[in-house]
Amino acid sequence: QLQLVESGGGLVQPGGSLRLSCTASGSTLDKYAIGWFRQAPGKEREGLSCISPTGSTDYVDSEKGRFTISRDLAKNAVFLQLTNLNIDDTAQYYCAADQRSTPQGRQLCSVKPVVYETWGQGIQVTVSS
User: Fold this and answer.
1) CB within 10 Å: which end of the chain, N or C, has fewer?
2) 48-84, pLDDT tens digit by residue?
3) For the purposes of burial, counting CB atoms within 10 Å of the CB of 48, is it exposed (0-12), middle (13-18) or buried (19 or more)?
4) Where are the beta strands (DSSP E) in the chain?
């Protein structure tokens, strides 16, 4: 049974950077598309970025250039580099997994939360001066 644990969150000043980690156990990440999401108080969960089992990536248009997703299969982990953070980036950040088994499906990923079956517990990112 796949389990995901996020780490790397915390308090950062506006303009700062953070690197979030999503570490998996119970299975290997090359079977899954991994997405990063966030949810601020009173708002819906929104997708940020994803990486497919074959390493293809996608981003929501609003965060292209500020956020970068990457993966280290040896560590069974996916990372999200956050840069030039602002107060509006304050939220709980989550990673999630969507198992992909078909050859075509393994090349794709989605930033839509509804697609994902397994979620981490989330990690808080607070941007404040």
Assistant:
1) N
2) 999 999 999 999 987 778 999 999 999 999 999 999 9
3) buried
4) 3-7, 10-12, 18-25, 32-39, 46-51, 57-59, 67-72, 77-82, 91-99, 118-119, 123-127
Q: Residue 26 carries which DSSP code?
A: S
SS3 at position 78: strand
If you average pLDDT over residues 15-40, what whole number do you get? Answer: 96
Q: Which two tokens stand for residue 114?
A: 């509804």
Q: What is the mean pLDDT of residues 40-48?
A: 96
Give me the amino acid identity at 26: G
Q: Using CA atoms, how far apart are residues 68 and 82, in angstroms rounded to an integer?
A: 7
> DSSP label at 107?
G
H-state helical runs in the chain: none
What gap in Å lies between CA 37 and CA 96, rounded to an integer?
8
Determine the Cα–Cα distance for residues 81 and 98; give it in Å rounded to an integer.
Answer: 21
